Amino acid sequence: MTLPRTLPIKRAAHVYLVRDGQLLLVQERMDDGSIFYGLPGGKAQPGETLGAAAVRQVRYETGLTVTDLAFVSLLEGELLAGTRNECYATFGRFTATAHGELDPTDPEVLGVRWVPLAEVESLVRYGPPPECEERNPLIWLPTCDFILGKARTYYPI
C-alpha cells in the first residue's frame, strides 16, 4: 500500500481592489533584492477564515479597511513542487470596497501603488521559485483573468 505524502498546508487570501481602472498592488523586497509586486493579502492564521484573513491582511499591508467582501475564486493544489517550500496551497481571491488612506503598517511592505489594469502584468517578474510562489505564472493567471473580466471560480495549481 502506498501512502500519500503529507505536505504542509498554506492558506492565504488576497483582495482585488480596483479604483478608476487601477488595481492596488503592494511592493515588497525579495531576498535577491528585487522588488516584488503582489495583491494585498496574506496567510490565514490557524482557525481563521479566508475572508477574515483577507480583511486583516489588507488592513496591515495597506492601511485600508475593506467591506463588502465578495468571493471571486479559489486556487488550490501543490505549489513549489520539488523545492524546500513545497506545500499544498489554498488561496482565496476576493473583491471588496476599500475605505481610508493608504498607510501600511507591515514592515515588509515598501509601498502601495495603484496600477492601471493594462500595466499589471508588466510588473510581474516570472522566475524560479522557491522564495516567492507569486512569481509562478499559475498564481498570476487568475489575476490576468480577473482583469479581462473572465475570472473562474476555481483554479487548480
TrEMBL record:
A GO MF term:
hydrolase activity
Write the record's keywords in alphabetical order, separated by commas: Hydrolase
Write down the CDD domains for this protein, in alphabetical order: NUDIX_Hydrolase
Entry-linked PROSITE patterns: NUDIX
SUPFAM superfamilies named among the record's database cross-references: Nudix
For activity, the cofactor(s) needed are:
Mg(2+)
Could you say which enzyme class this protein belongs to?
A: hydrolase
Pfam families named in the record = NUDIX
Nudix hydrolase domain location is: 8-137
As recorded in UniProt, its EC number(s) are 3.6.-.-
Keyword set includes Hydrolase: yes
UniProt-listed Gene3D superfamilies = Nucleoside Triphosphate Pyrophosphohydrolase
Which InterPro entries would you find in this protein's record? NUDIX_hydrolase-like_dom_sf, NUDIX_hydrolase_dom
PANTHER family listed in its UniProt record: ADP-RIBOSE PYROPHOSPHATASE YJHB-RELATED, GDP-MANNOSE MANNOSYL HYDROLASE
Query: What is this protein's name?
Result: NUDIX hydrolase
